[in-house]
Amino acid sequence: MTDGDEIVDYPIPPVNAIQPPAEWERLRQRCPVAHVRLPSGDQATLLTRYDDVKQVLADPRFTRTADDAARVSESGGVFNSEMASSLPQSGAAHQRWRRRITKWFTAKRMIALRPGIEAMADRLVDEMIKQGSPADLKASLGFPLPVWVICDLLGVPESDRDRFAYWSDTLLNLTRYEQAEIDSAQAEFVAYMAGHIAARREAPGADLLSELITGTDAAGERMTDRMLVSTGMGLLVAGHETTANMIGKMLAMLLADRGHWEALLADPALVRTAVEETLRYDANPGFGMIRYLSEEVEVSGGVLPAGTTAVCSMGSANRDEAAFEDAAELDLSRSPNVHLSFGAGPHSCIGQPLARLELQVTLEVLLRRLPTLELAVAAADLRPVEGLAVGGLREVPVKW
Fold first, then answer.
1. CA distances from 11 to 40, 160, 173, 202, 381 (A)
2. Contact assessment for residue 40 and residue 72, using Cβ atoms and an 8 Å cutoff
């Protein structure tokens, strides 16, 4: 547990875009099970060691929400939302729900999607070059690419992307928005998705939501409208917000030390392992994952009683020297690389094959099109996203 009665305010901010808080290492060494105060004022337990985080995330007994779980923010946030509560959180029903979604993220589908994603990335780079140097890589490429991809997957119009971004931010709120604004935005989001699903029911397309509307799971059951709305909202948020932020962070990490970019130019075959390493190395990964412990569990730092709300810091776990040799170094050829950035076990990120594909394609296209790319500001001057559960950078100024 933490030293004495120490309570750490959480989340712990990084030093800068590429340098993690020193607190991570201190907690891993001295307080691997730490008492933390969340933005809501509620208290929870923070896990920072790789083995502990993986164990709790992978345990199928533990879910992301419960009636008496600690609230992440005063507004509840994505972990305690209506969206989370309307989807099955554990057991056979959860697995049936996941199987219906994961059919859309198979290796075969990713191969089919790659040419279209590459063509869109090229078009966005064309526009960025036309607008001229310097540019904000996040606004020009990092945000619009994954939005286009997820909108195409769900059959929703990309022209609504600014609304999606705002609705997503309110759902991911920690301290940025007031309750009335959040309630209004979420009501709009639910109404929008319900309308889209009604339209798709009348005129199905070749998209994921159309298939979910018309199909059944392994038990022969159809999704309720409430589940369809929540599934659509969840995929829309996860499908653009996290990947958009990771594209910006990945490029910031690789350009902060010009040697990394030169190594990739010299050997583009490193792209796949470089993407995995930036996912592991991420110093600004956001809040982490919540698990509500329905039963007592023993971890390396002690016994966690039933009823504990555990915050699993994948960012800290990914820097654990016990799991990764030279964990503080960015090694573009690191393999194997069993990082926890997408979680572990039955609640691991469904869309991780798509996220990996988008990151790889983005990097390949930029290396090919803009070999002279560099940061337009010092890495230490990049500004982090604040007040939201997702990590990221507000902008990534680049020149070429």
1. 11, 31, 13, 44, 20
2. yes
Q: pLDDT tens, position by position, for the chain (400 residues)?
A: 444 468 999 999 888 888 999 999 999 999 999 999 999 999 999 999 999 999 999 998 898 877 788 988 876 555 555 565 667 777 788 888 899 999 999 999 999 999 999 999 999 999 999 999 999 999 999 999 999 999 999 999 888 888 988 998 888 888 888 889 988 999 999 999 999 999 999 999 999 999 999 888 777 888 999 999 999 999 998 888 889 999 999 999 999 999 999 999 999 999 999 999 999 999 999 999 999 999 999 999 789 999 999 999 999 999 999 999 999 999 999 999 999 999 998 889 999 999 999 999 999 999 999 999 999 999 999 999 988 888 899 999 999 9
Residue with structure tokens 């958009």?
A: 244
Please give the CATH topology (third level) of the domain spanning 8-399: Cytochrome p450 (1.10.630)
Kindly give the pairing relationship between strand 135-136 and strand 397-399.
antiparallel
Q: How far is CA 308 from CA 5, 44, 85, 108, 314, in A?
A: 17, 7, 18, 40, 18
Query: Is 0.90 surpassed by the pTM of this model?
Result: yes
